[in-house]
C-alpha cells in the first residue's frame, strides 16, 4: 500500500474514532431514555431497548417543570448573546483597528484569562452577587457571562483580516469608526459573529456550577441544574429513564441550532484562526 494511502487510512481511522467517542454518550442517553428502569439496571447492559417506552418523555414533562427550565435558559441565553456580542464586537474592533496606550498588554491580559479555570473565580463572583442581593435573580445568571475572552479573540482575528487600506481610505473620507464598523466590518464578519453567538448559547446551555450556586428557587433554575434532582421517586431512587428522556428533550434545541447554522460555525472558526 502506498504511503499516501496509509496516511489517509490512518487519518480516517482517527476521525472515525473521534466521532464514535463523541456520539456514544448521545446514543446511550437516547437508548436509556427508551428503557424501563429494570432494563437500565440489568447486567450486562443491553445495546437496544427490548421495548421502546416513549411514555418516559411524557412523564418527564409532567413530573418536572421542564418548560420553565427551558424558558429560563432561553431568556438567559438570549440576554447573554445580546450583551456579550455587543461587548465582544466593540472590544475586538478596538484591539484590531484603534491605537491606544497599553493595547498589547491589555490584549495579552484578556488572553491570559482564558487560561484561568472558571472554578477559581466562582467563590469571588458568588460573594459579589450575594453582597449585591442578587441571589435568585436574572442579573445573577446573566452578569458573569457578559464578557467572553474567546469571543473577543475570535472577532479580533477576523477584523484584522480586513485590509488596512480600506480602513485608512474610510478615515480619509471622514467615515467615523462606528460607521466603518457597522457598514464594513460587521457584514464582512457575519459568519464569525454568528459563531460567537452560537458558542454563547451553548455555554449557557451547558453551565451547571454557577446557576446551582445562585438559584435556590425552582422557578429560577436552568435546564443544566434543574434536571439534577427533578426525577426521584418516594424512596429517593433516581428515575434514570425519565431523567435521560428529559435530557434528550432539552438537548434537541442545540442540535437543531447547530444543524441549521453549522456552515457559519465552520466559516467563522476558519476566518478567526487565519491571521494573528
UniProtKB/TrEMBL annotation:
Gene Ontology CC: plasma membrane
SUPFAM superfamilies reported in the protein's UniProt record: MetI-like
Principal place of residence: membrane
Domain spans labelled ABC transmembrane type-1: 70-261
One Gene Ontology term from the biological process aspect of the record: transmembrane transport
Topology within the bilayer: Multi-pass membrane protein
Coiled coil location: none
InterPro entries: MetI-like, MetI-like_sf
Top-level division of the source organism's lineage: Bacteria
UniProt keyword list: Cell membrane, Membrane, Transmembrane, Transmembrane helix, Transport
Entry-linked Pfam families: BPD_transp_1
Membrane-crossing segments per the record: 12-30, 69-93, 105-126, 138-155, 184-205, 242-261
Entry's localization field: Cell membrane
UniProt family annotation: Belongs to the binding-protein-dependent transport system permease family.
Entry protein name: Carbohydrate ABC transporter membrane protein 2 (CUT1 family)
